[in-house]
Design a protein that fits this description.
The chain has 272 residues and is mainly alpha-helical. It folds into two domains: 39 residues, no CATH class; 176 residues, no CATH class. The protein is 71% helix and 7% strand. Strand 2 and strand 3 form a beta hairpin. The longest helix has 32 residues.
């Protein structure tokens, strides 16, 4: 079979003008037709080694799903190996209670301090629990919505987040600081999971959401742990003074909450 080509067809073929090779890319400069401007085609090779391993969705998706969930049993296993069995049972109960509303840092951490656990231990435990929860939500938000029980929790968190941002519009202007404060203050419905969901609703990147949640969680854990530890030491030396300080703290919190509610009511009354 004979194939012929005219000189005109050969002239119309793209003509490579230069080849530039770099360690990571290969650039070809060519002219598609005579008189056209120079065009560049860039070829980027596929990642190799460990980069190719983590670029594989069949590998990275299971890792992102399993790794956050593995943090919690790892913490429990470490407590089992380092704490006496009775103390392990007590702190395991506190860990379980931490995931059941309305319990939170403001109740679990002081109870652990009263039970005799060092402030740094309960701080590390609660902080790692928040890390696991926030990391799971950041990495698996869309997938978690399809899981029956977890999906309902996330949907309720999304509803809470939307309502909260509507009531607090300043959060959208100061999203990073606002998210840290949201996680820091022990209000009902706040915390690592809802903080990660709120960050997603605010349009923050996954890294920023995770950083904000970790910052707010660690600061909150330290405040409650160190505060409870200092207050317990004062009570042991002078019970009257310790009780007086505790009553003053509770009264200040109640007064602040009442003032905040009155302020919100006045704002609602001013609206047309």
């Amino acid at each position: 079979m004979h194939v012929s080509s005219s000189s005109t067809d050969l002239k119309n073929l793209p003509r490579i003008t230069s080849i530039t090779y770099y360690p990571d890319t290969l650039n070809l400069n060519y002219i598609s037709h005579p008189g056209d401007r120079i065009m560049t085609a860039e070829h980027t090779p596929r990642p190799e080694g460990w980069k190719a391993l983590f670029a594989n969705p069949y590998i990275i998706i299971p890792i992102k799903f399993i790794l956050p969930l593995a943090i919690i049993p790892a913490v429990i296993a470490a407590l089992y190996l380092t704490e006496p069995y009775e103390r392990f049972l007590i702190i395991s109960g506190l860990i379980a209670a931490y995931f059941v509303p309305p319990a939170g840092k403001e109740t679990i951490i002081p109870l652990a301090i009263i039970a005799g656990y060092p402030w740094w231990l309960i701080t590390a435990v609660i902080f790692l629990l928040d890390v696991a929860v926030s990391l799971f939500v950041v990495w698996n938000f869309d997938l978690a919505l399809k899981i029956p029980f977890i999906g309902r929790l996330i949907e309720s968190g999304m509803t809470f987040g939307r309502n909260y941002t509507e009531r607090q519009p300043w959060l959208r202007r100061f999203s990073t600081i606002g998210l840290i404060l949201f996680v820091f203050f022990p209000l009902q419905g706040t915390g690592a999971m809802n903080g990660a969901i709120l960050g997603r609703l605010l349009g923050l990147s996954g890294r920023r959401v995770f950083g904000c949640v970790c910052t707010g969680s660690l600061a909150s854990c330290l405040v409650f742990a160190l505060g409870a530890d200092v207050l317990l030491e004062i009570y042991r030396e002078d019970p009257t003074l310790g009780i007086g300080i505790l009553v003053g703290i509770v009264a200040a919190i109640v007064a602040a909450a009442a003032g905040w509610l009155m302020h919100k009511r006045r704002l609602r009354e001013r609206r047309p």
